Amino acid sequence: MSNRKLRMGMIGGGKDAFIGAIHRIAANMDGQIELVCGALSMHADVAQESGKMLFLAPDRIYNTYDEMFKAEAQKPADERMDFVTIVTPNFAHFAPAMQALENGFNVVVEKPVTFTLEEAQQLKAKVEETGLMLLLTHTYAGYPMVKEAKQLVKSGALGKVRKIYVEYIQGWLSRLSEREGNAQASWRTDPTKSGKSGCMGDIGTHAAHLAEYISGLKITELNASLNIVVDGRMLDDDGAVLLRFEEGATGTLIASQVAAGEENALKIRVYGENGSLEWAQMEPNTLIVKWLDKPAEILRAGSGYTDRLSSYATHNCRTPGGHPEGYLEAFGNLYRNFALTLSAKIEGREPKAEWLDFPSIDDGIRGMAFINNVVASNQSNEKWTKYTI
Amino acid sequence: MSNRKLRMGMIGGGKDAFIGAIHRIAANMDGQIELVCGALSMHADVAQESGKMLFLAPDRIYNTYDEMFKAEAQKPADERMDFVTIVTPNFAHFAPAMQALENGFNVVVEKPVTFTLEEAQQLKAKVEETGLMLLLTHTYAGYPMVKEAKQLVKSGALGKVRKIYVEYIQGWLSRLSEREGNAQASWRTDPTKSGKSGCMGDIGTHAAHLAEYISGLKITELNASLNIVVDGRMLDDDGAVLLRFEEGATGTLIASQVAAGEENALKIRVYGENGSLEWAQMEPNTLIVKWLDKPAEILRAGSGYTDRLSSYATHNCRTPGGHPEGYLEAFGNLYRNFALTLSAKIEGREPKAEWLDFPSIDDGIRGMAFINNVVASNQSNEKWTKYTI
Amino acid sequence: MSNRKLRMGMIGGGKDAFIGAIHRIAANMDGQIELVCGALSMHADVAQESGKMLFLAPDRIYNTYDEMFKAEAQKPADERMDFVTIVTPNFAHFAPAMQALENGFNVVVEKPVTFTLEEAQQLKAKVEETGLMLLLTHTYAGYPMVKEAKQLVKSGALGKVRKIYVEYIQGWLSRLSEREGNAQASWRTDPTKSGKSGCMGDIGTHAAHLAEYISGLKITELNASLNIVVDGRMLDDDGAVLLRFEEGATGTLIASQVAAGEENALKIRVYGENGSLEWAQMEPNTLIVKWLDKPAEILRAGSGYTDRLSSYATHNCRTPGGHPEGYLEAFGNLYRNFALTLSAKIEGREPKAEWLDFPSIDDGIRGMAFINNVVASNQSNEKWTKYTI
Amino acid sequence: MSNRKLRMGMIGGGKDAFIGAIHRIAANMDGQIELVCGALSMHADVAQESGKMLFLAPDRIYNTYDEMFKAEAQKPADERMDFVTIVTPNFAHFAPAMQALENGFNVVVEKPVTFTLEEAQQLKAKVEETGLMLLLTHTYAGYPMVKEAKQLVKSGALGKVRKIYVEYIQGWLSRLSEREGNAQASWRTDPTKSGKSGCMGDIGTHAAHLAEYISGLKITELNASLNIVVDGRMLDDDGAVLLRFEEGATGTLIASQVAAGEENALKIRVYGENGSLEWAQMEPNTLIVKWLDKPAEILRAGSGYTDRLSSYATHNCRTPGGHPEGYLEAFGNLYRNFALTLSAKIEGREPKAEWLDFPSIDDGIRGMAFINNVVASNQSNEKWTKYTI
């Protein structure tokens, strides 16, 4: 039980921005966090109007994050924001994140964590130097049945992991939407804003994170092939990667944004010696566990057989079985665990293990390294590229 | 765009209460509402502790709703709560709802709206007299694809409605849990707290509401058979009803709380001359539309083909297709539409048609009448009982 | 291991007939039966042409069943047909079935077994008198996972049965097809050919059979409401029945042939004290078993965990898991079990218990009684009608 | 309408053999083919006993195929077998197939068609030289909705094909079953009997065939990685291949036989510019078609909207929608189309286009080339290997 709500500021996420609105819903949901200030847009008029729409106090609607950090840092401790959420395009993550940490603010940042791996490493150094907290919003790691999947692998019930298939398939870039006024498409396909990879940076990183998170195994080698399917596009909009993991497991990672008719089809299957698990983001409350020698089981979030579900799954549910929770709740779980941990830290309490299970800067570094390695492998004629950081 | 957040009070919903927590998440979600006060429990200590956990100002943690209404009514207009949410057991809905209205507060109330039909009718009179607003939380009417289903029927695409099958199947009362310390089970199976029906009052009313809401047809006759399946229980825990609707449609309503292994399986199918629709609460983002003469279609919440989805569906989505929204978002939609309408009213703006589409006192009266008629039919040896109010 | 193929004759089932062709596929499938003769149509030219298409010997293509029985009865034992399959419309089952038995031929007959209950009872007497075998083709009882469901209930694993929901929903009579030259629709909606019920006779009987077969419980009372939904139709094309079973179980049976967009949606759910099962004909290789206190299980036909599947399920599979078997194989199982038993009888071997598990005249009598009772209940204003034979 | 049944002989497929029994069911099903002779085992006693169980005439139960070809070739035309089915292990396909052709018999042969590509090419030359027919039993090409998928791509409705994902995942070799007396496992993992690849030869070839069959595009380059997952195994039991197709399409092929808990999970997805299709062998009567700009559609085998289904789909169905057909019917379709074509040829009639759509020697050559190329790519450090024949 916390003593007070945590105070959040936001950089980016002005009106019409997609992911900023999602972050606010996720942060609002559990009543543990209040948005107190923001530098919501590079454009002063948008920043002001957006702040007003969000009912911010007029003097805490800032026009730049620079201004925001300075002003907030000078506020008394019982008023000052506790953390800042950065929801700008990729190229604009690093500078405000560094400045936040330097000014004593904890950080929530969208993935990929930075524009380059080098920036991510500098950020890690700064996090360690300051002792502040950083949440990287790999949303899919917030789903209760993803937590369950991780714990199930960890328990050894499936036996040694042999195969990992992960795929993330979307269709929204099937046309050259970046030339048709789609703001999302525009920056995400622009190498100066998005980074050196499009599809793999945007969604391949989620898939890779999920595979490593659930299996507990790190990628050691990869064999990637990226494609620009839509003529005129500047970055990969599709690709596939053969994977080798620690301990001899192998797998595949498929990502596409030109798979016409697909929505947001992230799915993972992990096979061990004795059984396997399957989880699909679009039916997130179900974890199918198949066994070599007995009938498959359907594990359900929020279900009554709490002895069969790990504490990590139950901690991350808000409702009983059959009351579907979704993407926003998964996102909310990231915020909730971050907030529980941060409040505990502020108030000198010990955080629970379940609260600490949120993605942070190390996951960010894996993500940036994944992008680097995939791009390098794609450019190589060698079949296998060692995964390096 | 509203000028300010709406201020909410809450009656009931202290710590450990199930539905109160759900209401708060739903109200928090969109950042349009803030909880400012509460009379959260009949027990002063619980009320105080719960208020503290929710970060209420100490002077707005009340021990009784009586006290709350008095104190809040005296506050200045820019501080006073705008509406009160009543999440007590059924028998304790009516008194605070009446008192709220009498003191000038809008009302959000759990279903069934009151303990008896007579109370519901008095409440309706009071709503009309005061001109205040009432939201009845028939959650399932808040799902975007339920909205879509209603609009699809209304469009005439399916032709004249012939059949309606609705079922609501749970298993959580498969044992005599009310004697094993399950608080939810305890009051819901107690006729002095729940009303004259158990299963039909608790979940049959949801099913009946959904059927009438989507089809636009009212039940005119029914043939009900209720059961007490678990020995020692005082109210029906299971039942089935044959239905006749306006305009010649017929149907069935099945409800059970002793269907071992089921979670919260609310499902509806509506058949017209040319095609049909199917929606299941546990996969809520999908509406299956089957046609007599062409392939079935899968309509998806949040999808890109916005020309095929009604404005009622799109208005009630927060995310693009494939980012599953669930029960809490459906609940949030009730609050959001209520809040949008209330803010518009307060600020003298015209509400949109989509905002006005939330359940209110008339739905509450239908619910109470449904309970009365089902119980009467169950007691009768006549096959068909006319549905009366 | 049989010594020889069994020899089959057929009455009805000429070219363009639907169910005759299905019977032949089912009989052919396992190579244990050969079609040797037929009286395939009332029309001599159709009978002749159909026989030729089926490669029958010209002298065994008969123009009437009368002629066929006489001729076949005079053939030597090693040539004479062993059994006759009757696939004429309902009104023309009884006479050939009686004549077959009187001439010493075993019988396979489509359901409903006769036109009236009285005929069914006479047929039963004749079966008992002659000691010959009769197979009633309640196809759905031939599916391996239906066998599994029956054995699972019998094992007691689910506990005492409380609820049975069965539904059989089709859409093919959504229009007045009987006036549009649809031969199937024509006789099935004609009371002089089909019997006193349309939908309930045609598919309601399948649903009732499945419920009693799986649960092992007989219907004791019913509360039926039948409808003629399509104007101009002469028999019910839709209906619903509330059911009471032996040992206190209750249930519902829904049947419709005017549910636009539905194909052949037969589905059953059986709930016991500890768990439940769900089987749907359109995904027949899966039996979902849900438990009150542990995760649901997916039992699959042909799967490797043969210790978990009953011998009745495994006996009725031809392929390993994941090679879907369907309607024709289920139909083939009826023929196979009938043939295995008949061969054993002929050759003086003891049939296995699994072979004997095929529907016969007693099921036929239950079917005819079901029709009678449903029609009587529909005509009554009393809520409940005792199920009588 | 044929004049007579076709006469089939069989090589291999003695009692306890898996695939021989499947072939017989498939051939029997439609009553167009009769099994008249066989050389059913290398072991004379098994050959004799198996022939007896299948009710073969004693003088047509042969101990060797050599003997069978000689004896049958000398029979009069109205008695002699028309074609021979070869269901021996891979290494024993070529010799009997050549001998059959040389003796004037048409051939049905299991895939992979031969042991080496060179043999396949010789066989092709012999087929062309003799003008006889050969059916290669790529079963999955027999499913009606696979036919529909092919026609849908061909129609251009999906636009230019961009992506093809195909996967074939089984778990039955998760343990070293070949050392535990599993006869199937034993020869399929033995390079002297199975060929140079295990998993890719056994099931990868099916997946590759399906991809090329449906898309109409040939593989041009591949990047393969094969694994021996289970210690002690001699051939690959797992692998993944990145694919490049004609006309710029790319894709992935995943195959595994060590995916614990999987049955026979063959699935394909094909993405075009405007939409995509998805088909899974374990739910074979459904073809999901997703569109970029409108709701996804569910196309169903046997459905009433015959204007939307191609003649290739409807020709390959035996039952109306909702009466599931499965693996055996798909297999039966291969035999049926082969038999219809062969009868037409024998009787001097023109075969229909739909009948001619069965896999033959060219598919066999593609299959052998696929194996060669995958194995070559796996051994290479170059990322991409040109697909050569």
UniProtKB/TrEMBL annotation, chains A, B, C, D:
Residues 147-278 form the GFO/IDH/MocA-like oxidoreductase domain. Residues 7-136 form the Gfo/Idh/MocA-like oxidoreductase N-terminal domain. It holds the Pfam family GFO_IDH_MocA_C3. SUPFAM superfamilies: Glyceraldehyde-3-phosphate dehydrogenase-like, C-terminal domain, NAD(P)-binding Rossmann-fold domains. InterPro entries: Gfo/Idh/MocA-like_OxRdtase_N, Gfo/Idh/MocA_oxidoreduct, GFO_IDH_MocA-like_dom, NAD(P)-bd_dom_sf. This is Gfo/Idh/MocA family oxidoreductase. Gene3D superfamilies: Dihydrodipicolinate Reductase, domain 2, NAD(P)-binding Rossmann-like Domain.
